Amino acid sequence: MTCFKFTNIKSTLKFIKHNINKKKNKKKKYKKNSGTQLTIQEQLYYCSGLDDVTKVEDLLAQGGEPNGPSSDFSQSTPLHRAAWKGNLPIVQLLYSKGGDLNALNKYFLSLFSIFYFLFFFLSFFICLFGF
């Protein structure tokens, strides 16, 4: 880890301003669409993070699996994504369709650990800022 020593406040502020501007000007890099359609499982994973319950129901009816891992780096299930986004109606729907509450993703997080993580940070910010 690098430790920076600044001789005066002017050089410190210049360094901070430079890094902030560098982050603002950085463009997001997305993969180019290769023309392939998303599979039903991928659509279910991404729609479970949205508030569209009817779309999730349709994808489950088309053969989407509530316990099927995603194709992204985390290998989370649609149940994990809905929990992380805080969509309780979609979590209930996926659970009623056979979602496993104890399923683990690549980082060994279950549904309960995600809810615990979100609850901890929410209560931390309430205590800190008095919302």
What do you see in this structure?
- The chain has a domain at 40-129: Ankyrin repeat-containing domain (Serine Threonine Protein Phosphatase 5, Tetratricopeptide repeat), CATH 1.25.40.
- It is extended and about 60 Å long.
- Helix content is 53%, strand content 0%.
- The chain has 131 residues and is mainly alpha-helical.
- Helix 2 (40-47) runs antiparallel to helix 3, helix 2 packs parallel to helix 4 (78-85) and helix 4 packs antiparallel against helix 5.
- The longest helix is centred in the C-terminal third of the chain and has 19 residues, at 111-129.
What brief labels describe this structure?
131 residues, Serine Threonine Protein Phosphatase 5, Tetratricopeptide repeat, 0% strand
In brief:
The protein has 131 residues and is an all-alpha fold.
The CATH fourth-level homologous superfamily of the domain at 40-129: Ankyrin repeat-containing domain
Summing up helix and strand content along with how strands pair, one would put the structural category as: mainly alpha
| Element string (H = helix, E = strand) | HHHHHH
Largest beta sheet, briefly?
none
CATH C-level class of the domain at 40-129 is Mainly Alpha
Shape: extended
What's the number of helices? 6
Question: From the 3D coordinates, which CATH architecture of the domain at 40-129 would you assign?
Answer: Alpha Horseshoe
Task: State which percent range the strand residues make up.
Answer: under 5%
